[in-house]
Amino acid sequence: MAFLQGVKLAFTILALATPSWAIGVAPGQIQNFVTFGDSYTDSSYYPSADGGYSWPTWAAMYGDLDLYGFARSGATCSNLLTYRPFPPIMGWQFPAYLNETRNGTLELNSNETIYTIWIGTNDLGVNALLTGSDAPTTSIVQVRQCAVDVLNMLYESGARNFIMQNILPLDLTILYSNYSYPNTYWNLERNTTGWNVHMTELVRAGNEITSLKLDALLPTLPDAHIASFDSYGLFTDMYNNPQNYFNGTAPYNVTGCIHSCVYSIDSTAAPACTITNGTDADSFMWYDELHPSQQSARILARELTAVMMGEDNQWTTWLS
């Protein structure tokens, strides 16, 4: 009997152990979040690339969390792989974070802080993998390895809680759709069907590569809690079932955008821009030809806040 009571006590202790013994984060555990990424996540200016507040700003409000945003518009994972004249994660964002933590500007309790990584849009897109980058030997394998390396470097710096967001279905954006038109991001001729097919494959391959590389990394990260957030699945569901997400006063619209600018090829004429205002805007999935709308940002924030609050979420798989 004494032996059985001892076994029961041991299991009780295990059940009440610190979060590092469990999968995921506990409700109320996370007080801060730190973001790395591109314009989809950049909270450093207003209005952001989606015409309003970026999703981290909404999440900070929804969850009463402290936000520390290092994501910057235009960023890639590494400019050594896919160069763009913007602050990449590897060359600017991560060093800026390290500098602030080492000089005492930023002091965060690792148990109460979660780190989000959402990168890839610019690595895969125009002037990068889709059309050819300055480093022609760069492949989708390398740019997704880079994203996983970011998580590993954060872990080595002391971080323990992470959300890795996969790439949303870029082939559903106006820029990379098969019905695209000359716009702010690309106003030259192109094969829209070819772009759409190529981007579809890049995104799907990139997400699968990321998943496999995360699985391989997990055994080397004791005490880490890593959530894989399915941005691809969420945005695909928004596209296919807009009635479940959008509540504006205009008809649901997942193939157009709030701020559309149509250019004329081989012309110096100003673009013809159309802007949707007021509550009609909440019916749109996209703000412009590349960026999600404010309503999409709020939806994403709602889902990610649930993850950070330790709640069940259909788009999230805790890997550790």
TrEMBL record:
The keyword Signal applies. Gene3D superfamilies: SGNH hydrolase (3.40.50.1110). Pfam families: Lipase_GDSL. SUPFAM superfamilies: SGNH hydrolase. Residues 1-22 form the signal peptide. InterPro entries: GDSL (IPR001087), GDSL_Est/Lipase (IPR051058), SGNH_hydro_sf (IPR036514). GO terms for molecular function: hydrolase activity, acting on ester bonds. PANTHER family: GDSL LIPASE/ACYLHYDROLASE FAMILY PROTEIN (AFU_ORTHOLOGUE AFUA_4G14700) (PTHR45648), GDSL LIPASE_ACYLHYDROLASE FAMILY PROTEIN (AFU_ORTHOLOGUE AFUA_4G14700) (PTHR45648:SF22). This is Carbohydrate esterase family 16 protein.
